[in-house]
Amino acid sequence: MTPLQDRTDRQPFAKKNLRTTVGALAVVAAVGGSLPPWPPFLPARDTFPPDLAVSVERVWTDPTLSRTVRGRSASVPFDTYLAFVDAPDVTTAAARFLKLARYRVTALAADWYEADDNDGSRGIYRILLREPHRRVVLSWGEHRGRILGAIGGSALTVIDLRERDGVVDQELAAYVRIDNAFAAALARLLLPIFGHLADRKLSEGFAVTAEVAEWALAHPGDFCAWLRREPLPSERREPLLQALPACRAEDQLSPPDS
């Protein structure tokens, strides 16, 4: 029996390691078949800075794992929901206020963000593409755990949004490259057993964003008041204030500052 087999025969250990890998990278599933040399859903390679293009190719042409998950639908007008998707720092702040999640996202520069789940995982990501119904994200992250130590990796994520009968349907396809060889092998090996854990982890972000947006729409007075007092730069706050008619109406009724 090999050391890898010996470890995977102990289910509690295996489950803990898979949770760690999924928590750090948010995707697990075997990739089959060959892929074209450049993602077909992105603009041409030479439209990106060379170092960014190399990072995209590294994940796309040699992924460890991938998965596609359909997320929870959001009962929010499409344009309003898109405003929350495009303001992850504000959305996660609202999620913490509502005690829905502990995630924290910080806007660093145009299309660059830093993320921390307050559970050992942190990283940075870059929005590569913004289309009316699609966002493509490249991320680099690391999870530090007691058993496997630091697990690093990168991921290319495609988020598709579709409006249907007054709700927004969400689907995410993620391709991930795990730097730790043991964690990569373990994730592949245990996928048939614990694949539902990966689906649940992938769906968490969808669910949190949907709940925050639905709260804002159902209780605009509470949301607008919270957003105005939240210590955020005006350029981060204003798009969401403008996305909600109730917030715009309050602004029009408010007397000008003296």
Structure commentary:
The protein is α+β, with helices and mostly antiparallel strands. It has one domain (3-253): Alpha-D-Glucose-1,6-Bisphosphate, Chain A, domain 4 (2-Layer Sandwich). 46% of the residues lie in helices and 28% in strands. It is built from nine helices and seven strands; from the N terminus they run H-H-H-E-H-H-E-E-E-E-E-E-H-H-H-H. The chain has helices at residues 3-8, 11-25, 50-61, 78-85, 88-97, 181-218, 220-229, 234-243, 245-253; strands at residues 65-74, 104-109, 112-116, 121-131, 134-145, 149-164, 167-178. Strand 5 (134-145) and strand 6 (149-164) form a beta hairpin.
Secondary-structure map:
Elements: H1 3-8, H2 11-25, H3 50-61, E1 65-74, H4 78-85, H5 88-97, E2 104-109, E3 112-116, E4 121-131, E5 134-145, E6 149-164, E7 167-178, H6 181-218, H7 220-229, H8 234-243, H9 245-253
Antiparallel strand pairs: 1-7, 2-3, 3-4, 4-5, 5-6, 6-7
In short:
The protein has 258 residues and is α+β, with helices and mostly antiparallel strands. It is built from 9 helices and 7 strands; from the N terminus they run αααβααββββββαααα.
